Protein: Putative an1-type zinc finger protein 2a
Amino acid sequence: MEFPKLGCHCSEPSCKKLDFLPIKCDGCNNIYCNDHFKYNIHNCPNAYKNNVQVPECPLCGIPVPIPRNQQPDVAVGAHIDRDCKWDPSKERKVFTNKCTMKGCKTKEIIPVLCPECNNNFCLRHRHTADHNCMGFKASLRAKIYNAAVDRNLSNHPKPFLNTRAIQDQNMSEDEALARAIALSLNQEVGPQGSTQRQASTSNTNDKNKCYLS
Structure:
């Protein structure tokens, strides 16, 4: 015995299967089988009317409320044009932790601090043997020494201070540091100190002279 009116064929063009428990789509009102009744599977053109979701802005990440019967793409586009607070100039850089090893330009996402010298290094130079670790005190003295030498060179490019020549004179780190600081202080005084010395010398000479009237 046949039942010609029992069941319905799936409305999906690639399926057309006879399903005895068909499902009617509440968006397009078509009949589908159990495999094609979802909105995204049969590409329902009216899915946005019933599939109530709150989309997020892809730039600022803020949820964008949309009225019913409006496509999410339209609401998100209007939000980007008018209300989006995303500022590309304030985008946070991911790789900001630069390796302090001389000659290395690698940057890491997270800081990798050496427990001995407290400097930041990349993963390649994180071990003490890889960056020739001198310890915290020696590293601090080296930083002060290099800062004094750089300040001296920037303020007085001539005469040129050869730091490598100083290191080759069998000087200890403390002696080299003291010498660099002394040179920096002497040259910071500059012409003002020499002018004051000349004025004091001229005043002394004037006092030693005898004038006859």
Summary: The beta strands are 8-9, 18-19, 23-24, 31-32, 97-98, 107-108. The first strand starts at residue 8 and ends at 9. Helices lie at 39-42, 47-50, 72-82, 136-155, 163-167, 173-208. The chain has a mean pLDDT of 74.
